[in-house]
Amino acid sequence: MLTIDDISVSYRIKGKPVPVLKNFSLQLKQGEVIAVLGSSGCGKSTLIQVLAGMLPTDSGTVTAAVRGVNLPLNPKTHKIAVIPQNCGLLPWKTVRQNCLLPLQLHNLRIDDKKYAELEATCRSLKVDSLLERYPNELSGGQVQRVALARAFLQEPDLLLMDEPFSSLDTITRSDAWELFLNIWRQKQPTTILVTHSMEEAFYLGKEIAVLDKEKGGLLERMDNPYFGIQEPGCEGFFHRKRILQGLLKPKDGGGLS
Prior knowledge:
With 257 residues, the chain is an alpha/beta fold. The chain contains seven helices and ten strands. Strands 6-7-8-3-9-10 form a six-stranded mixed beta sheet, with helices on both faces. Strands 2-1-4-5 form a four-stranded antiparallel beta sheet, with helices on one face. Helix 2 runs parallel beside helix 4, helix 3 (112-124) packs antiparallel against helix 4 and helix 4 packs parallel to helix 5 (170-187).
Protein backbone atom coordinates (compact mmCIF):
# COMPACT_ATOMS: atom_id res chain seq x y z
CA MET A 1 0.00 0.00 0.00
CA LEU A 2 1.23 3.48 -0.94
CA THR A 3 -0.26 6.14 1.33
CA ILE A 4 0.08 9.85 0.63
CA ASP A 5 -1.35 11.58 3.66
CA ASP A 6 -2.18 15.28 3.69
CA ILE A 7 0.98 16.53 1.97
CA SER A 8 1.56 20.15 1.01
CA VAL A 9 4.31 21.30 -1.34
CA SER A 10 5.28 24.81 -2.40
CA TYR A 11 7.97 26.48 -4.48
CA ARG A 12 9.70 29.72 -3.62
CA ILE A 13 9.42 32.34 -6.34
CA LYS A 14 11.11 35.68 -5.69
CA GLY A 15 11.40 34.67 -2.06
CA LYS A 16 7.69 33.95 -1.62
CA PRO A 17 6.16 30.47 -1.24
CA VAL A 18 3.81 29.46 -4.04
CA PRO A 19 1.70 26.44 -3.07
CA VAL A 20 1.25 23.66 -5.62
CA LEU A 21 -0.10 20.67 -3.66
CA LYS A 22 -2.30 21.52 -0.69
CA ASN A 23 -3.26 18.86 1.85
CA PHE A 24 -3.15 16.24 -0.89
CA SER A 25 -3.99 12.63 -0.01
CA LEU A 26 -4.07 9.44 -2.06
CA GLN A 27 -3.92 5.71 -1.36
CA LEU A 28 -2.88 3.10 -3.89
CA LYS A 29 -2.95 -0.66 -3.36
CA GLN A 30 0.19 -2.65 -4.03
CA GLY A 31 0.39 -3.77 -7.65
CA GLU A 32 -2.10 -1.20 -8.95
CA VAL A 33 -1.58 1.37 -11.69
CA ILE A 34 -3.22 4.79 -11.62
CA ALA A 35 -3.18 7.41 -14.38
CA VAL A 36 -3.03 11.03 -13.22
CA LEU A 37 -4.51 13.81 -15.33
CA GLY A 38 -4.78 17.55 -14.78
CA SER A 39 -4.20 20.98 -16.28
CA SER A 40 -0.80 22.60 -16.51
CA GLY A 41 0.50 23.65 -13.11
CA CYS A 42 -1.81 21.39 -11.09
CA GLY A 43 1.09 19.51 -9.48
CA LYS A 44 1.35 16.29 -11.52
CA SER A 45 5.12 16.45 -12.01
CA THR A 46 5.55 17.84 -8.49
CA LEU A 47 3.86 14.72 -7.15
CA ILE A 48 6.29 12.52 -9.10
CA GLN A 49 9.28 14.48 -7.76
CA VAL A 50 8.06 14.16 -4.17
CA LEU A 51 7.55 10.40 -4.47
CA ALA A 52 10.95 10.01 -6.14
CA GLY A 53 12.62 11.72 -3.19
CA MET A 54 13.74 14.70 -5.29
CA LEU A 55 11.51 17.30 -3.61
CA PRO A 56 10.66 17.70 0.08
CA THR A 57 7.16 18.31 1.38
CA ASP A 58 6.18 21.24 3.57
CA SER A 59 3.97 18.95 5.61
CA GLY A 60 2.31 15.53 5.54
CA THR A 61 3.71 12.03 5.13
CA VAL A 62 4.21 9.40 2.44
CA THR A 63 4.55 5.75 3.41
CA ALA A 64 4.81 2.49 1.48
CA ALA A 65 5.01 -1.15 2.46
CA VAL A 66 8.30 -3.04 2.50
CA ARG A 67 7.77 -6.77 3.13
CA GLY A 68 4.42 -5.99 4.72
CA VAL A 69 5.66 -3.15 6.94
CA ASN A 70 4.69 0.47 6.22
CA LEU A 71 7.72 2.76 6.26
CA PRO A 72 8.30 6.39 5.22
CA LEU A 73 8.86 6.36 1.47
CA ASN A 74 12.57 6.73 0.82
CA PRO A 75 14.79 5.73 -2.14
CA LYS A 76 17.19 4.20 0.38
CA THR A 77 14.63 1.75 1.73
CA HIS A 78 12.26 1.37 -1.23
CA LYS A 79 13.07 0.45 -4.80
CA ILE A 80 11.77 3.40 -6.81
CA ALA A 81 12.12 3.61 -10.58
CA VAL A 82 11.43 6.84 -12.46
CA ILE A 83 10.85 7.29 -16.19
CA PRO A 84 10.94 11.04 -16.95
CA GLN A 85 9.52 12.65 -20.06
CA ASN A 86 12.92 12.70 -21.78
CA CYS A 87 13.56 9.08 -20.65
CA GLY A 88 16.84 10.12 -18.98
CA LEU A 89 19.30 7.90 -20.86
CA LEU A 90 22.97 8.91 -20.60
CA PRO A 91 24.26 9.57 -24.13
CA TRP A 92 27.80 8.33 -23.42
CA LYS A 93 26.64 4.92 -22.24
CA THR A 94 25.35 2.02 -24.32
CA VAL A 95 21.85 0.62 -23.93
CA ARG A 96 23.27 -2.22 -21.82
CA GLN A 97 25.19 0.21 -19.59
CA ASN A 98 22.15 2.50 -19.20
CA CYS A 99 19.98 -0.44 -18.17
CA LEU A 100 22.47 -1.65 -15.56
CA LEU A 101 23.36 1.81 -14.18
CA PRO A 102 20.61 2.04 -11.49
CA LEU A 103 21.67 -1.35 -10.12
CA GLN A 104 25.30 -0.20 -9.95
CA LEU A 105 24.32 3.05 -8.24
CA HIS A 106 22.55 1.04 -5.54
CA ASN A 107 25.52 -1.32 -5.20
CA LEU A 108 23.40 -4.30 -6.19
CA ARG A 109 25.04 -7.49 -7.38
CA ILE A 110 24.91 -8.01 -11.14
CA ASP A 111 25.31 -11.73 -11.72
CA ASP A 112 24.52 -14.14 -14.54
CA LYS A 113 20.87 -14.26 -13.47
CA LYS A 114 20.57 -10.48 -13.70
CA TYR A 115 22.27 -10.45 -17.13
CA ALA A 116 19.79 -13.08 -18.29
CA GLU A 117 16.94 -10.98 -16.93
CA LEU A 118 18.30 -7.98 -18.81
CA GLU A 119 18.27 -9.98 -22.05
CA ALA A 120 14.74 -11.28 -21.40
CA THR A 121 13.36 -7.86 -20.47
CA CYS A 122 14.90 -6.22 -23.53
CA ARG A 123 13.58 -9.05 -25.68
CA SER A 124 10.07 -8.45 -24.32
CA LEU A 125 10.39 -4.78 -25.30
CA LYS A 126 11.99 -5.57 -28.67
CA VAL A 127 15.29 -3.80 -27.94
CA ASP A 128 17.51 -6.85 -27.30
CA SER A 129 19.33 -6.24 -30.61
CA LEU A 130 20.25 -2.70 -29.51
CA LEU A 131 22.23 -3.43 -26.35
CA GLU A 132 25.55 -2.18 -27.71
CA ARG A 133 24.15 0.94 -29.34
CA TYR A 134 24.15 4.45 -27.90
CA PRO A 135 21.01 6.56 -27.33
CA ASN A 136 21.73 8.86 -30.29
CA GLU A 137 21.61 5.80 -32.54
CA LEU A 138 18.04 4.96 -31.50
CA SER A 139 14.63 6.17 -32.63
CA GLY A 140 12.33 7.91 -30.17
CA GLY A 141 10.30 4.73 -29.68
CA GLN A 142 13.43 2.68 -29.07
CA VAL A 143 14.71 5.18 -26.48
CA GLN A 144 11.40 5.00 -24.67
CA ARG A 145 11.44 1.17 -24.65
CA VAL A 146 15.00 1.14 -23.30
CA ALA A 147 13.86 3.44 -20.49
CA LEU A 148 11.08 0.95 -19.71
CA ALA A 149 13.58 -1.93 -19.71
CA ARG A 150 15.86 -0.04 -17.31
CA ALA A 151 12.96 0.69 -14.97
CA PHE A 152 11.56 -2.85 -14.87
CA LEU A 153 15.02 -4.36 -14.46
CA GLN A 154 15.17 -2.63 -11.07
CA GLU A 155 12.14 -4.69 -9.93
CA PRO A 156 10.73 -1.53 -8.34
CA ASP A 157 8.32 -1.34 -5.44
CA LEU A 158 7.09 1.88 -7.03
CA LEU A 159 7.25 2.88 -10.70
CA LEU A 160 6.83 6.59 -11.46
CA MET A 161 6.20 7.68 -15.04
CA ASP A 162 6.08 11.37 -15.98
CA GLU A 163 4.55 11.59 -19.48
CA PRO A 164 7.09 9.14 -20.96
CA PHE A 165 5.06 8.55 -24.15
CA SER A 166 4.25 12.18 -24.97
CA SER A 167 6.99 12.70 -27.59
CA LEU A 168 6.03 9.65 -29.67
CA ASP A 169 3.90 9.69 -32.80
CA THR A 170 0.47 8.05 -32.70
CA ILE A 171 1.47 4.66 -34.13
CA THR A 172 4.70 4.38 -32.11
CA ARG A 173 2.89 5.46 -28.95
CA SER A 174 0.20 2.81 -29.42
CA ASP A 175 2.87 0.11 -29.82
CA ALA A 176 4.69 1.41 -26.73
CA TRP A 177 1.50 1.26 -24.67
CA GLU A 178 1.00 -2.38 -25.60
CA LEU A 179 4.61 -3.32 -24.84
CA PHE A 180 4.42 -1.51 -21.50
CA LEU A 181 1.26 -3.37 -20.51
CA ASN A 182 2.72 -6.73 -21.53
CA ILE A 183 5.71 -6.37 -19.23
CA TRP A 184 3.71 -4.56 -16.50
CA ARG A 185 1.36 -7.54 -16.26
CA GLN A 186 4.38 -9.79 -15.66
CA LYS A 187 5.96 -7.60 -12.95
CA GLN A 188 3.00 -5.58 -11.61
CA PRO A 189 4.84 -2.84 -9.70
CA THR A 190 2.70 -0.19 -8.03
CA THR A 191 2.63 2.47 -10.74
CA ILE A 192 1.73 6.14 -11.05
CA LEU A 193 1.51 7.40 -14.62
CA VAL A 194 1.27 11.14 -15.22
CA THR A 195 -0.22 11.87 -18.62
CA HIS A 196 -1.97 14.63 -20.58
CA SER A 197 -3.83 12.12 -22.77
CA MET A 198 -7.28 10.80 -21.83
CA GLU A 199 -6.85 7.90 -24.27
CA GLU A 200 -3.59 6.93 -22.55
CA ALA A 201 -5.22 7.23 -19.14
CA PHE A 202 -8.08 4.94 -20.16
CA TYR A 203 -5.77 2.35 -21.71
CA LEU A 204 -3.03 2.24 -19.05
CA GLY A 205 -4.77 3.16 -15.80
CA LYS A 206 -6.79 0.74 -13.70
CA GLU A 207 -7.88 3.93 -12.00
CA ILE A 208 -7.86 7.54 -13.16
CA ALA A 209 -7.22 10.52 -10.88
CA VAL A 210 -7.78 14.16 -11.82
CA LEU A 211 -5.84 16.88 -9.98
CA ASP A 212 -7.29 20.34 -9.50
CA LYS A 213 -5.03 23.37 -9.90
CA GLU A 214 -7.12 25.67 -7.71
CA LYS A 215 -7.55 23.19 -4.85
CA GLY A 216 -4.04 21.80 -5.20
CA GLY A 217 -5.50 18.39 -4.51
CA LEU A 218 -7.59 15.56 -5.84
CA LEU A 219 -10.64 16.63 -7.84
CA GLU A 220 -11.90 13.20 -8.88
CA ARG A 221 -10.90 9.55 -8.76
CA MET A 222 -12.66 6.87 -10.75
CA ASP A 223 -12.37 3.18 -11.55
CA ASN A 224 -11.59 2.38 -15.17
CA PRO A 225 -13.25 -0.73 -16.62
CA TYR A 226 -11.51 -0.07 -19.96
CA PHE A 227 -7.98 -0.77 -18.69
CA GLY A 228 -5.97 -2.49 -21.44
CA ILE A 229 -8.66 -1.96 -24.10
CA GLN A 230 -7.77 0.29 -27.00
CA GLU A 231 -10.72 2.21 -28.50
CA PRO A 232 -13.55 0.50 -26.56
CA GLY A 233 -16.13 2.23 -28.77
CA CYS A 234 -19.10 1.73 -26.42
CA GLU A 235 -21.50 4.22 -24.89
CA GLY A 236 -20.17 3.65 -21.37
CA PHE A 237 -16.68 4.59 -22.50
CA PHE A 238 -17.85 7.75 -24.24
CA HIS A 239 -19.89 8.70 -21.18
CA ARG A 240 -16.84 8.42 -18.92
CA LYS A 241 -14.78 10.32 -21.46
CA ARG A 242 -17.32 13.17 -21.43
CA ILE A 243 -17.13 13.24 -17.63
CA LEU A 244 -13.33 13.53 -17.79
CA GLN A 245 -13.55 16.25 -20.44
CA GLY A 246 -15.84 18.22 -18.14
CA LEU A 247 -13.47 17.82 -15.19
CA LEU A 248 -10.49 18.87 -17.27
CA LYS A 249 -12.17 21.84 -18.94
CA PRO A 250 -9.87 24.82 -18.26
CA LYS A 251 -11.24 27.49 -15.95
CA ASP A 252 -8.52 30.07 -16.63
CA GLY A 253 -7.81 29.67 -20.33
CA GLY A 254 -5.08 27.09 -19.75
CA GLY A 255 -5.24 23.71 -21.39
CA LEU A 256 -4.67 20.15 -20.38
CA SER A 257 -1.00 19.39 -19.89
